[in-house]
Design goal:
Layout (H helix, E strand, L loop, with lengths): L8 H25 L1
Length: about 35
């Protein structure tokens, strides 16, 4: 099992937040459009 320790943890966290926000906005769009 390889150890995955990102050196740029801030960038990884920002990408995760961006993905979460995109998923949330997509879910909200589906909720409002239905």
């Amino acid at each position: 099992m390889p150890n995955f320790i990102p050196h740029n943890y801030d960038q990884v966290a920002m990408i995760a937040i961006n993905l979460r926000d995109q998923y949330s906005s997509v879910s909200l769009n589906r909720l409002y459009s239905s």
